[in-house]
Structures
1.
Amino acid sequence: MQAVVVDHISKCYSDKVPALKSVSFAVNQGEIFGLVGPDGAGKTSLFNIMTTLLFADEGSVTLLDMDVECDYKKVRAVIGYLPGVFSLYPDLTVEENLKFFATMYKSSLTENMPIIKPIWKQLTPFKTRKAGKLSGGMKQKLALCCALIHKPEILFLDEPTTGVDPVSRKEFWDILKTIQKQKITVIVSTPYMDEATRCDRIALIQEGEIIKIDSPEKIVKGFEGSLYSIRVKRIFDTLKVMEKCPIECIFYPYGEYVHAVFYDKNEVTIPIRFADFMKDNNMEYSDMKKITPSIEDCFIELMERRKSE
Amino acid sequence: MHELTKKFGDFIAVDHITFQVKKGEIFGFLGANGAGKTTAMKMMCGLLRPSSGIATIAGYDLKTQSKQIKKRIGYMSQKFSLYNDLSVTENMQLYGTIYGVKPAALQVRIRESLKDLGMEKYADKLVGAIPLGWKQKLAFATALLHKPDIVFLDEPTSGVDPIVRREFWDRIYKTASTGVTIFVTTHYMDEAEYCERICIMSNGKVMMIGTPTQIKTDIGVDSIEAVFSKFVKR
């Protein structure tokens, strides 16, 4: 069964460019579905529409066969929402916050404790501390507990890891996997491309449009062109020179390497022709090898191709 | 920076940190949330008084000459720091004037800077109406209007798309090549690789300083992410 069906949703705020342009997708029950895209792509607008907080101009959203506009009250009872901004009460204690949300949803701390137990355990030492005095990571774990305490069937997480360091980010995704095991559907957004691989399926979103929906593996498989990583000494200087490369390609810095996507049909001779070009321009490089693209490579490639089309 | 320390009550946010950054260097500052990066940066900008230790920024003493320091540095915070309801030009005029750039010179610099960014067509647009990627580039250019010796960038690329993120780093390189020192924090580990040297902080202390290659070799791993995980494991 499909937990969420988004059907041709459009949204435009006054006099500005459209925030969402006819967005459609469906999320299966029990899936972790990722909305991956930069700030301003329309992720938060979409979340607000899916969670009954904002009306779309056009299109419809159905959650578990309920329309988010007509059946908004019933919808609210079965969803949990962790917004992008911290929205708990800073002057209530950790336990008071959780109790408050449980009561709002006509539940109690004990009723659904098993669901949040693994996360709650980490918070127990701070039970009596004011929520406003928690560290960033702990605040977020508390917010997650509050979004789960009424045992929602669908959990919405808007950029839960933005601005969070890489180690805490990994930890958070491990938690999401345990939530998924409780048969809760998870819809999560992130600007970090590397997190996409932790989702069952992802939608790449840019400027209010979905540019690709698939499993991370399939998106990587569908990569067009051949991707090479090349080690160079002075990355940004080398890139200037590479602009003159006669082989049809795009290239960009990628950590300590330059990544180059070649579109040339005659693949076998690419490394040789590239070597000639670099030699003619007195540029040194080493370790040129063909590699499997990451989601970030896929995103860049898709966007560059859209730009040129 | 020598033994620079900041205490808040019993809590030591920055614990005797010592390092030097060369003129024109791109220096990356990494660490988990709460490692003390922002506190250290605020002290260097003269916004927070150190509890102990000494520091010289752009040749001025942090304790006695913080006024002069503020004139010689630029700062771009992780949250977007321009005014959404002012136009692009108005924002630049405001910041340039605050930093004491003479009106005639400021006009010229704003024009040059917008041309360089390819943002002339946005000149009279409200900042609130332009895309995030452009805003970040604009905030960077604005922080450079008074031609500072050092510019501090606190997570300048958070949430920005992968292409704009790379364009931003291209600008960082261009700026550094004119002799401006760049001090930058980031949560993107690939960006750590673009820095000439990086400093990893944990619990207020400096854990490692060196070029990305040096650090990876010393620890015996092949990515900065692995180095990072090692120091931040709880």
2.
Amino acid sequence: MTVLVDASAPDIAARLGALSVPPHETVRPPEVGLVMVQGRIGGDGAPFNVGEATVTRAAVRLASGEMGVSCVLGRDPEKARLVALCDAMMQADLAPAVEQEVVAPLRANLLEAQMLCESRTAATRVDFFTLVRGED
Amino acid sequence: MYVAVKGGERAIENAHRLLAHERRGDRSVPEVTTDQIAEQLTLAVDRVMTEGSLYDRELAALAIKQARGDLIEAIFLLRAFRATLPRFGSTRPLDTGAMRIRRRISAAFKDLPGGQVLGPTFDYTHRLLEPPVSDPPMPATAPAPSEPTPRVSDLLAADGLIETTAFPASPDGAEQPPGDLTREALSFPADRDLRLQNLARGDEGFLLALAYSTQRGFGRTHPFAGEIRLGDVALEMWSEDAGFALPIGRVTVTECQSINQFKGSATEPPRFTRGYGLVFGHCERKAMSMSLVDRSLRARELDEEVKAPAQDEEFVLSHSDNVQATGFVEHLKLPHYVDFQAELGLVRRMREEHARRAASSGTANVVDDTREAAE
């Protein structure tokens, strides 16, 4: 799920196209709403409310009974539906196929993007020297 | 007081048509798209998300376009939109210690474990206007270290030199839900959770000026920028359906930990105290201002004398919200004709009395001129 919520709807749909998606119904059509984002005082203390974020949630049930739910940041109904569908398929015997055909390639793409971002950030690593250094 | 007026429909409709025309500008110049705003005016988008108190880049970009770049108007639009949506719940408190860092600096520690990275910053630029580069060179890359990046406050806490904000969990392990000023009106004194929520959505300019005032001597708190970090954090939300916490995605936040002096008290040894700032997106000036003002507002808790505006929580928290402020200041331009007619009548009567008394005593200075027309 951590991979799917970070991926885009077209990317998930393209990967899901490689699988035969089982019959399913939308139990809860995608609905846009808000969540209150909490932080912690001082980073590690008691919680406080930072502000809200838009989310879309959905629920999908396979004909075989497995129920999948999703709640994803943003206002993309198709993404919420696809993530819920993948969640349902992950609970059925399709889990290995979803992992291999959908989640693993998306994870690899996200990891590649993250590594690029990290290496660009690393190039801005700075070592300041004080003019009179207090150590050797 | 504003009283209802009638009429003016055609003028209002035509004014809005004119507004749409002016917003479009010269029609021979290509129209700016919300994608362009979201991608190229990112810091304006971040500010609107933070002060609009709604994390949604596309909506913030749309609001900026509709508001013709007036950020307070855009913040107002975002707040109004937010009021139309149901709230599904709260996320679990985000963990800035697990942030995917894009910038991390400390003005207090030169050799920070995990290193300092400048990231995309205006710092050290020459502030010279230059012709824009439409296709800048690709960024440099370097091997990324895998060492952990602990918060600076955790480093000092190990020696007991700084206060900790860690708090004991209640016996059943459950945390008290924080106060929420969008659900219940603020009352004073306000606890720190409510103060931080108020500051997080407060006006950057107002908080910047207050933070500056504390540095200039109006409630000194001797701050250091202990650590500023920018990056992405994962959000999770409890799901009733699933019965466990679901990941919902990642948001960009800026965090500032200020380190401030504390002279100690009869029962406490001298140590550093902390101020905290946390905002959506990349809003560094705002996060720093927030942490300084947060520390100032702890005067009561730390037994410091409250004598400066930045230490007065009712003053700060009641005036930090730019949507409230602009509403009350700008409502003055709406028709106040009945009010003004009443005041006009009052001033005329006072002038008559003044003239009568002046004529009878031969002098004008016996009148009580302290009375206000608005009384």
